[in-house]
Amino acid sequence: METKALSSSLGVEISGIDDLLDDVVIARCVEALKWRGVLLLRGADLDDETQITLSRKFGDVVTFGGREIFKVSLDPSVNPAAEYLKGTFNWHIDGTTDPVPIKATMLSARQVAMVGGGTEFASTYAAYENLPDKEKERIDNLTVVHSLEASQRALNPNPTDEQIAQWRSVPSQEVPLVWRRRDGRCSLVIGTTADHIVGLSADESRALLDELRDWSTQERFVYTHEWQVGDLVMWDNTGMLHRALPYDASSRRTMHRTTIFGDEAFK
Predict the structure, then answer these.
(1) Which residues form the TauD/TfdA-like domain (predicted)?
(2) What is the pLDDT of residue 232?
(3) Domain range enclosing 227
(4) What is the C-alpha separation between 149 and 192, in angstroms, rounded?
(5) pLDDT of residue 246 exceeding 80
(6) Is residue 242 part of a domain?
(7) H, E, C per residue of 6-68
(8) Which of 142, 165, 182, 218 is the most interior residue, by most CB within 10 Å?
């Protein structure tokens, strides 16, 4: 098993594996995921059954409509939620409205876009660690409200009453802006679902959230993955912001996604 850093702050490419399901290999992948945030296996070419089996090595797998494989596509004939997936073009963390967010996500590339369609990752661990001490003091005790409505308004600033009611049917959640992890590290709970910071005016709140997003997504904290068919990428959803780069819906870009239940609550 050989490893190569994908960037200075995050990510590792793994190669030279004879048996991806071997327990020793899995243990090393778990450690790499914890400290590097993003794992890449070029040309893994996993079928759905093997991807599910591999995912279960990392934890319980979330089901969508009774299925463990979720097809990521902007083609409504492939994914009825295609319109909703346009929200993934903005920086986000999955599960910010859940008490226990998703732990990790695995994507397998089945078809790729000729233009665009890459995936970017930004480490909020590294972003927090590199903040000046005065900035850490400023934000350490703040809380932030996350909501589905905030992410959807970024796509549709003039929704209908019906759309607003649908968005608000998913309860919002107040969480620490700085998530102090049980392993002693800290990450930032930000992204497009971040609606406002408790106790600040709307303008102050938006300015600070935008400032933290821009800080966290500067080049030194980011890895951009350009997909090839067969690639397998897994990331720590709790510490990595991520987003898809825009692509034409007619490109037939299709990813098969498995999602791992979380095991650490926001606190």
Answers:
(1) 8-259
(2) 97
(3) 2-260
(4) 10
(5) yes
(6) yes
(7) CCCCCCEEEECCCCCCCHHHHHHHHHHHHHHCEEEECCCCCCHHHHHHHHHCCCCECCECCEC
(8) 142
